[in-house]
Design goal:
The chain is α+β, with helices and mostly antiparallel strands. The protein has one domain (5-151): Alpha-Beta Plaits, CATH 3.30.70. The protein is 27% helix and 26% strand. It contains four helices and eight strands. The protein has helices at residues 18-30, 69-82, 124-133, 140-145; strands at residues 5-13, 35-40, 44-46, 56-65, 97-103, 108-109, 114-115, 151-153. The strands form two sheets. Strands 1, 2, 3, 4, 5 and 8 form a six-stranded antiparallel sheet that branches. The chain has a two-stranded antiparallel ribbon with strand order 6-7. Strand 6 and strand 7 form a beta hairpin.
Length: 159
């Protein structure tokens, strides 16, 4: 049996009740076989970055899993599909978007999956919630790099 790996998943949505979609995605992730959610960031409201539509609700989950990285990706895409995720065009608004950011210390590049996620350091909507669950990974220089991107803790979520 494979040893557990710590992985980090970005969650986001900007269609319908985005807050509810992200909270339901946390629950779906926690109920997935071989996945244990060990950390949840606060929810953050962000303006679309390289995307369109209304504001996003974003978060990051820290998980422990015995699944391989491609199997985690399959699980994330299944959860997205069940939430009604469509991909009509690049950067379209999303009912749910789940991205595998890190899978242990794995570095991989394939047509399906690149780890670590290639743009994690470019996005406030990833860095701020990631800092909640993995503060040693996000440095002040990372946050300074994205300081111009609008982001706020979603106080309506009671986080």
């Amino acid at each position: 049996m494979r040893d557990p790996v710590t992985a980090f998943v970005a969650l986001g949505a900007n269609l319908g009740d985005a807050r509810a979609a992200v909270l339901q995605a946390f629950e779906a992730l926690a109920s997935w076989p071989e996945v244990l959610v060990t950390g949840r960031s606060a929810l953050y409201r962000t303006a679309p970055h390289e995307a369109q539509g209304p504001d996003f609700i974003n978060a990051v989950a820290r998980i422990e899993t015995r699944l391989s990285a491609p199997d985690v990706l399959d699980a994330l895409q299944t959860i997205e599909h069940r939430a009604g995720r469509l991909r009509p065009y690049l950067n379209a608004p999303r009912s749910l978007d789940l991205d595998l950011l890190f899978y242990g210390d794995a570095c991989m590049h394939s047509p399906r999956l690149t780890l670590p996620h290639p743009r994690w350091r470019e996005r406030a909507f990833v860095l701020h919630p990631l800092a909640d669950v993995w503060p040693q990974r996000v440095g002040p220089e990372d946050l300074a790099r994205v300081a111009g991107q609008a982001i706020e803790r979603d106080v309506a979520a009671g986080e």
